[in-house]
Amino acid sequence: MNNQSSITAITVLVSIAVVLGHIYPVFYGFKGGKGVATTFGVLFATSFTLGGLASLVWVITFLITKISGFAAISTALSLPVISFFVIKMEYHQEFWLIYGMICIFSTLLLFRHSTNILALRRELKKNEN
Predict the structure, then answer these.
(1) Which one, of 39, 43, 46, lies nearest residue 90 by Cα?
(2) pLDDT at residue 129 above 70?
């Protein structure tokens, strides 16, 4: 592993720790937020293009649905696809480190929004009948 890869690995670990720290803060009894804003911050720090595209997905979804949780879920679902191409262009050697981090963030966001997903599902079933 070369020096740049070592720096990238440390950056990825710190980024994951930052998001986990905001989702599960020690000083608040491990009850924090859903990690959306912190994830966006890390995305912008990692790649301005990736952060911008993720924000665009969130904003467009929110403008259409007016549901913040649905916008976050949509962004989390699209993030691995968007990031695959953006990270592939920007980080050649460190692709799998960065892409793995993005997939972890997407999984965390979906996990933290599981109650929103269930509520949306109930709402859709109710409207179906």
Answers:
(1) 46
(2) no
Nearest one of 40, 42, 47 to 71, comparing CA atoms: 40
CA distance 88 to 37: 24
Residue 109: closest CA among 45, 44, 58: 58
Report d(CA 61, CA 75) in Å as an integer.
8
Q: What is the predicted pLDDT for the residue at 128?
A: 72
pLDDT digits (tens, 9 = 90+) for 73-122: 999 999 999 999 998 887 777 888 899 999 999 999 999 988 888 888 88
CA nearest to 105, candidates 4, 36, 55: 36
End-to-end CA separation in angstroms for the chain: 57
C-alpha dihedral sign at 34, 49, 80, 100: negative
Q: Closest Cα to residue 115, out of 75, 80, 79, 72?
A: 72
Distance CA 122, CA 113 (A): 14
